[in-house]
Amino acid sequence: xxxxxxxxPILAPEDVRPxxxxxxxxxxxxxxxxxxxxxTIMLVRIAESVAHAGAGxxxxxxxxxxxxxxxxxxxxxxxxxxxxxxxxxxxxxxxADPRRVHLTSMSHLRIARSSDGVHFTVADTPLxxxxxxxxxxxxxxxxxxxxEGRCYINYTAVSDLGIxxxxxxxxxxxxxxxxxxxxxxDNRDVCLFPRRIDGxxxxxxxxxxxxxxxxxxxxxRSPDLIHWGAHQHLAGCLGTxxxxxKIGGGAQMLETDRxxxxxYHGVDAGQRYSLGALLLDIEDPRIVRARLAHPLxxxxxSYELHGFFDNxxxxxxxxxxxxxxxxxxxxxxxxxxLGTMALADLWEAMGV
Length: 352
Hints:
Blueprint: E1 3-4, E2 23-36, E3 39-50, E4 57-66, E5 69-78, E6 84-85, E7 91-94, E8 101-103, E9 106-114, E10 121-122, E11 138-147, E12 150-159, E13 162-170, E14 176-183, E15 187-192, E16 201-207, E17 217-222, E18 229-235, E19 246-248, E20 254-256, E21 259-267, E22 273-280, E23 288-291, H1 302-305, E24 313-321, E25 324-331, E26 335-342, H2 343-350
Antiparallel strand pairs: 1-26, 2-3, 3-9, 4-5, 6-7, 7-8, 9-10, 11-12, 12-13, 13-14, 15-16, 16-17, 17-18, 19-21, 20-21, 21-22, 22-23, 24-25, 25-26
């Protein structure tokens, strides 16, 4: 249902300067989006890898502890090493213990600014770069939510300790205050609501159960954005098709006259990522008022079908401009793209 922007992708690795001279930019994707100060701000996930490796080698970036601090370094693997599985380009997995992995790239978060929401200028330096043990493998997939005049940044902190969700806050996108981990491993795809409801802050989150169940969307509430409780399952996988394997929150929550709109992702058995839409009750967001029966968008374009990880649409940010929904999404884990549609058409499709 999304109409692709004719000049997609709107941001590609070729548009971004590496953070280090010996690294290269592999991916520019999964950006959080907000409107502040008359600008559209994207906080883009920039995935970088080591620019040069020897024949038959893979060099991975990571943080190592040095005294009381942390510094960037690299580790080298031989591709013929039978102790590791190199089949997934995103990770190197220990065959003896599949829980022991290394990412082939390290992600940080970088600002891109636009006056029209389409043409973006990317900063040359990171806004948030991995800084401690919980971010040893990178900072990923930020969502931006303006709450009470401040912009909160929730992002995925990835390390050998697991996949957690961290929170930071900024007033100007020049200085950022890290507030720490708000959801312990394994948990990601956190989407904050832009205002209190019944005196509490609210969020969607996506725990990944180890023993039973599937990764699905939960909802929680907090008195202070740091301590979260009253956890409740909100929406699960459906059927045997596009959202049968796992689902997770996507863009920050959008307030509309019909309810709280959530643009989420659904994954099928073949690891194909599509976008869907949920509508939650405006007074009690634990109530699902409507759910789009078919995908809002699924991979069809060449930049969505082929990239660092094929067949992926993944949104971390959306905006409503007048009567138009703008969905900013990562495509094939490599580039940023834009899709639009009239809200009236979405409401009709959702039956609300």
